């Protein structure tokens, strides 16, 4: 029963229809949360006594950094599912996630650098988190480049699945080795934003933003996956019957 | 057809690859020359101040080793892919990951191990203290097999591509970061007169982990590339 449910859901035609129903709702919900989070973060939350107003970039930066890791894990999980159970849809989700994850990683890097200018006095510091985020960006770009380079997209998706799995094993190793390297090379003079002691008036907008970013990701990944499904199934009858009436 | 035990298949494949490499021994020198050349370019770029050279020496040697390893990776499966013997390995009754291990071992013996021979010379060129040169050898012994093992996954993924070289570096170099960090850091620690056992242990752990996981990932990648 459950297996049948999954097979039905994972059939491209079904997915295309269901995802199409979900996308507008997710998008609206994400936009609403985004507005609420931004209002709470930029207007309602008090000014930080140490960092002044410039701390407010964390309402973008921290959720983006969370998403960058989250999406990589989703990608690797999709890769695992596609390799083990040969569910095509998992491949599609994994592939569609890569550019979004890379964008979030890039956003986290840019906002981190913008925050670093008033805090550290420079745009870029070889700080452990920034550095591992940079390497994460390279990992994403590798995935995207590999997918682009292999012409047969079925083969490409499987190659990417393996690469994502190798990457997900390596990410903790890279992260902790970078942290080790950082503590040795650079004395910890930087006062970081202390997460556990965050005030509720800052925490609530932060969590709202995180939720908004998650829903945004869900919206966009479904949109991308729908496109990808159409492209892959372009020779099947249901896609042709979907496209033909509009063309005539 | 006679059946072949796994261990003798491993040895045969290892010997075959070593013989093939020996027949083309002119090519063997290239990564080595590259290693020396890149390392000797750095003093030309940053100036001949001995203090400065000493300060960046361990990092420079390891970055050069990384690039030399990257450069030599392409030959790991290329000729076997071109002449079809890779497909025969896939069809054999033995687990592909073990056969892959034999190929990686052969590749390391002809490209990774020679780096050890010139490394002390480079250590002297970059004014590293004696202790650091000993540690350099140790880090290279532990680190270069990791480079070959991780690199094998990347090569296996890109072997079917016409211009896989650039993508290969994009795939593999980020994964080399931990080796670079621990390798260079061990040497710096040793140069400061502190025992570098912690970093060496980490390199050993990386070697054990990649030895266990990389051949499987490589075998899976080869299956994808050959499909």
Number of strands of chain A: 0
Main pleated-sheet profile of chain A: none
Q: Could you give the distance between the termini of chain A?
A: 40 Å
Low-confidence stretches of chain A: 187-195
Q: What is the helix content of chain B?
A: over 70%
What structural class results from the helix and strand content of chain A?
Answer: mainly alpha
Overall number of domains of chain B: 1
Number of helices of chain A: 8
Using only C-alpha atoms, the radius of gyration of chain B works out to 18 Å
- Show the largest interface: A-B, 27 and 28 residues
Average residue-wise pLDDT of chain A: 84
State the major sheet of chain B.
none
Low-pLDDT regions of chain B: none
Q: What's the order of the H and E elements of chain B?
A: HHHHHHHHHH
Q: How does the overall form of chain A come out from the CA principal axes?
A: globular
Oligomer state equals heterodimer
Proportion of residues in extended strands of chain A:
under 5%
How many independent structural domains of chain A? Answer: 1
Computed Rg of chain A: 21 Å
Which outline of chain B best applies?
elongated
Brief rundown of the structure:
Chain A is mainly α and 248 residues long. In chain A, 81% of the residues lie in helices and 0% in strands. Chain A has helices spanning 2-10, 12-44, 58-85, 88-120, 128-149, 153-185, 200-232, 237-247.
How would you describe this protein?
The complex is a heterodimer of chains A (248) and B (227). By secondary structure, chain A is an all-alpha fold. Chain A is built from eight helices and no strands. Chain A has helices spanning 2-10, 12-44, 58-85, 88-120, 128-149, 153-185, 200-232, 237-247. The longest helix of chain A is centred in the N-terminal third of the chain and has 33 residues, at 12-44. Mean pLDDT of chain A is 84; it is low at 187-195. Chain B is mainly alpha-helical. In chain B, helix 1 packs across helix 6 (96-125) and helix 7 (130-158) crosses helix 8 (164-172). Chain B has ten helices and no strands. The mean pLDDT of chain B is 88. Chain B has one domain. Chain A binds chain B through residues 83, 135, 138-139, 141-142, 145-146, 149-150, 155, 158-159, 162-163, 165-167, 169-170, 173-174, 177-178, 180-181, 184, and chain B through 153, 157-158, 160-161, 163-164, 167, 170-171, 173-175, 177-178, 181-182, 185, 202, 206, 209, 213, 217, 220-221, 224-225, 227.
């Amino acid at each position: 029963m459950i297996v049948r449910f999954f097979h039905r859901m994972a059939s491209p035609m079904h997915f295309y229809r269901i995802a199409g129903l979900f996308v507008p709702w997710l998008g609206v919900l994400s936009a609403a949360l985004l507005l609420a989070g931004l209002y709470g973060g930029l207007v309602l939350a008090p000014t930080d006594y140490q960092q002044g107003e410039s701390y407010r970039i964390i309402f973008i930066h921290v959720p983006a950094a969370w998403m960058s890791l989250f999406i990589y894990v989703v990608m690797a999980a999709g890769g695992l599912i596609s390799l083990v159970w040969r569910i095509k849809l998992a491949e599609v989700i994994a592939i569609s996630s890569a550019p979004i994850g890379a964008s979030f990683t890039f956003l986290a890097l840019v906002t981190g650098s913008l925050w670093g200018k008033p805090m550290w006095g420079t745009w870029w510091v070889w700080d452990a988190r920034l550095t591992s985020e940079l390497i994460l960006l390279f990992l994403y770009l590798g995935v995207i480049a590999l997918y682009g380079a292999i012409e047969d997209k079925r083969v490409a998706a499987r190659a990417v699945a393996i690469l994502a799995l190798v990457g997900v094993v390596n990410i903790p190793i890279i992260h902790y080795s970078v942290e080790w390297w950082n503590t040795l090379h650079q004395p910890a003079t930087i006062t970081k934003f202390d997460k556990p002691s965050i005030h509720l008036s800052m925490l609530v907008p932060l969590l709202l933003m995180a939720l908004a970013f998650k829903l945004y990701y869900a919206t966009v990944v479904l949109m991308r996956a729908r496109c990808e499904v159409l492209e892959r199934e372009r020779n099947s009858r249901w896609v042709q019957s979907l496209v033909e009436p509009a063309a005539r | 057809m006679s059946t072949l035990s796994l261990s003798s298949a491993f040895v045969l494949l290892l010997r075959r690859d070593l013989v093939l490499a020996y027949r083309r021994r002119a090519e063997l020198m290239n990564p080595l020359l590259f290693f020396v050349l890149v390392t000797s370019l750095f003093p030309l770029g940053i100036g001949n101040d001995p203090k400065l050279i000493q300060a960046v020496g361990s990092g420079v040697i390891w970055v050069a080793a990384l690039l030399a390893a990257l450069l030599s990776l392409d030959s790991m499966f290329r000729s076997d892919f071109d002449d079809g013997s890779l497909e025969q390995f896939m069809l054999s009754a033995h687990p592909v990951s073990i056969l892959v291990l034999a190929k990686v071992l052969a590749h390391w013996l002809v490209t990774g191990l020679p780096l050890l021979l010139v490394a002390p010379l480079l250590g002297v060129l970059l004014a590293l203290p004696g202790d650091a040169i000993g540690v350099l050898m140790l880090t290279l012994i532990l680190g270069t097999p990791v480079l070959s093992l991780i690199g094998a996954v990347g090569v296996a993924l890109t072997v079917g591509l016409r211009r896989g070289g650039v993508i290969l570096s994009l795939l593999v170099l980020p994964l080399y970061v931990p080796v670079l960090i621990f390798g260079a850091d061990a040497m710096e620690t040793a140069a400061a007169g502190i025992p570098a056992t912690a970093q060496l242990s980490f390199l050993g752990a990386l070697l054990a982990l990649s030895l266990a996981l990389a051949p499987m990932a490589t075998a899976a990648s080869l299956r994808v590339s050959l499909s």
